[in-house]
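Batch 3, record 17
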Amino acid sequence: MKFRKLTALAGASLMVLGACSATPGASGGAGGSKGTVYIGIELPQQGSELAASEPIINGIKLAVKDAGGVAGNYKIEIPNSVILDDAKDGAHDPQTGAVNMKTLATNEQVVGVIGPLNSSVAKVQIPISNEAGLLQCSPANTNEGLTKPEFGAKDVRKANPDKINYVRVVTTDDNQGPAAAKYILEVLKKKKVYIIDDTETFGKGIADNFEKYLTANGGELVGRDGVPKTTTDYSAIMTAAAAKKPEAIYFGGVTATGGARILKAAVQAGLADVPYIGPDGIYDGSGTTKDSFLNLAAADAKNSYATAAAVGDYPGRQEFTDKFKKEFSKDPTGYSATGYACAQVVIDAIKRAGDAANMKELREKVRVAAVDTSVTYKSVIGEFKFDANGDTSQKIISFYGFDAATKDWVFKEQLDFAK
Amino acid sequence: MTVARSSSPASAPGFIRRFRLVGYSLIGIVAYFLLLAFMLNSTATAAQQVANALTLGAIYALVALGYTMVYGIIELINFAHGDVFMVGSFVALWTLTSDPIFNVVGLGQTGIVTNIALLAGILLLTFTVSMVLMAVLNMGIERFAYRPLRNAPKVAPLITAIGVSLILQNVIQIIVGTGDRPVPQLFPTDGFQFLGANIRYLNLFIFLVALVLLYGLQQFVSRTRLGRAMRATAQDQQAAQLMGVDLNQTIAMTFLIGGALAGAAGVFQGQYLGYVRFDLGFNAGLKAFTAAVLGGIGNLTGAALGGFLIAFLEVFAAANGQQRWSQAIVFVVLIVVLVFRPAGILGQQIGERA
Amino acid sequence: MTGRVKGRTSLSRATLREFVDVHRSTSILLGMALVGVLLPLIALVPPFNIFQNQSVWVSGFSNAGVFVLLALGLNIVVGLAGLLDLGYAAFFAIGAYAYAYGASPFSGQHFPFIVLLVVGALVAATFGVLLGAPTLRLRGDYLAIVTLGFGEIVPIVFLNADKYTNGTNGIGGVYKPDIPFVEFTLLNPWPFYVLMLVLVTIVMILIYRLTESRIGRAWMAIREDELAAASNGLNTVTTKLMAFALGASTAGFAGAFNASSLTSVDPGQFLSTVSFTILAMVVLGGMGNIWGVALGAFVIYTVQIVFLKQLNTFFEGLPFHVPVLSDVNFVQYQFLLYGLALVLMMLFRPEGLFPSQRRKQELHAADAADTESSAKATMEEAL
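Prediction for the assembled complex:
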């Protein structure tokens, strides 16, 4: 679901940004001669979630700029009217997301949508975009139920279960959860784990995946509880957890639903030296980013680790960072890169779709081109293909640990599930 | 003593009843401890959980008093009270730190204060600021939002109260944002050993100060002239007025005390949780009101007792790994109590006042 | 009520009022037909067509319809019977889940839409009775807290009883309405819109008829003076229970429709903010008056979903910077505005923007101190 700030990493680059098209020879002809198409953006833009979305929007805009604002014979634009916000009262809201997707679907000029950020929003949007045959690329959703038929995805894309329209450039929680368990068992060498989740779609789902892998591979589950985000006092829960003498704590959730609060209570309950591992939901910026996990946890984060469902170390990372910084005077996040990659997918699909008689036909052609399983995308985050469900072949989970000196996450290693 | 409809002032039977209540409470705590120790198979953990419950209960009790006093005197569920408590926790935060919000520079604290005298001074100042400001805020709310509606149908001030609650929440949200705001922890993390558990001095401090405040309030209500006026107004507004009680002043006083207690609870909240957030008031208010109803609304001792009971229930759920159900358990208990004993545990059976 | 409409050529206000008084159901029917035709047309003219295109407007209107239904239902409880229900979203949730159980791959069932609408309403009503029967005999404001608690419990149960409800993921792939000869697609807003109009019209007529019946007068009697109503031989508990159950069933009805149009239900859709939003709609619209409440709900929903958002886009898009307005996030202020509206309404115009005549009298009676006489009048009507 989330992947944010990329921190200092050595790694030179060979890649030239902007020239990442999969098709060698894009059609000739003057750019924009066939008219203007829009790429819609659908992300929460309020409260703490704006911090995650803004870098994505910038990443997308940068990708369009790098492509020269054209794809094939079409001019690409992202006017404000197609940048929609699915947040309500400061947090993402599925119902608002559904209304937004209808808005985008009925706008014929929109040939592709990038978003949403949250899996629960995707769940109500996919039925709509699927019925409309509108290409949707998420830079951040990781819930496996959105794409994989064995987790009920055919009910989500019910109108046309075999016509894929939703793709994503990050891998799924049935990789991210197990990866964390593997890391605890093999790298941190801990066996007895206490799991706590935030009872939400993403948090509970990933904790379930974590638990499955852990118990099947020699780990021991000493206890588990779910704490809704409305919980205020975590001391009793963490006292109960401490009594089980865990060697590690896994948190399924995001910072906004209690990531740092639980850690603080755990430290108070005497679990300061026990490693605390969370998904990309707590990998949300350095100690100086307002409202981020590291900012709220402060010194208590000394034993914290996070996974991220995206490639952490990719060729061209430094170049991308520099370019992004120059354009927006801000550091990019991991999401900026995945947002950029999504935009590349859409732009590339428009190019390969060729000319169409009308916008409706173009939309369908773009969808077909994008989900073509034989196409290899050469994107900013590396090469990948989409499988028959729209999931990326790049199944890399990165591990990060807290670095006290920089008060930031440092990249530890990455695990490739595709191998 | 009770604010509402207590037939006897502080007389001999009252004393006996109070001691009996203390005795029952102690028995209850011990039984709770034994039950937990048996279920969790560890006296240390059980002791730790009892300490958690008593601390949380102390905070709930202080907030619950504000609900019960207001209800006792004007029969209004003051939905805004939980949010006054939340604002109090922010005032405490601003007093402690140096965030230049509204250009007010606070004490600039960042962490543990080891010097006892300094700690006492800082706490005293924080409590004073938070309690005074919340007392004023609560009185202001009464003056402008509730007083004009004193004779209106009951549903009118109730809706106003919900409105005030939304306003307070959103004003704070606009000022500080939706995220958690960390509160500097003044107390050291260590404590004393008790039955194998490490009880933090903070827990002890919260519990004791809350007890002192509760006792002080009781004494105030049962012994002073104003307290008598409050009890009289609660029993019969019109008769009290005929006896020369200044209604406006008495009601304002009730809101003042309730606000001050919420301010104190706000200071505790920040110290105990280590963070504050704009929406903490809603849930705390819900729990505290439930506590007031559980104990017998209008009854001071009942509200305090109810606060502890709710905390005990919650901690019990969490201690057994069932935090996900804790909120539901609290409300089911509330509904069951209301159905079978509508006046609450310590309240007296009374009909609807027409 | 013996007046007849005379064949006057000039349709003056008085004649219109007279007509509405006599042919109540017909006037609702005509009124809704007029609204139904006008709304999509309004969406075509400036400034409305600038915000979004017609079909998005129409889709928004049918969503607004859900809230109109909810507000109408809550109006029975709060506006007519004077009982404060703070957990109304719970019944909305129950109706929605009832529909999802009856028509989704999750349960493997697919009952007809119409049947499920009724089932949703009945199930919600049953829960209303189960909750109301023991608690309605309590004093009025205890009901508020019991319903508030119930409103908290229901989503928690749907969230944590994973096995039966699919937990936090909710139930996806809920079937869309199936009505012969009409194809419902998520992209074509018109069938939903027309269906919504029909449902709102039916509910409005039913509620209107109830209000004017014996039971409606009994509700008002209780609202005005419960003790007096009881001493006049009215069974107050049954009467209140009736209001409570009817309110719940309307929410269930709305929930079922919402599940079918959103095609998914999950516990997060039914939190307490929904209850408070509906309450604000009822209060602003004018407690007791069905047209007022419906309009209140419609206006609040539209303002919230469309205008607050568009205001942001509008000010951001300006080439120059407007002080304050350019920096303010209007959507963020939504609940602050509700709060202010609730307080100011109660202080200065407790009868709402579009009050019912009787409610207005009552609410202002406090100032004039003649509650008794108005209560007495109602009582006489009721008995």
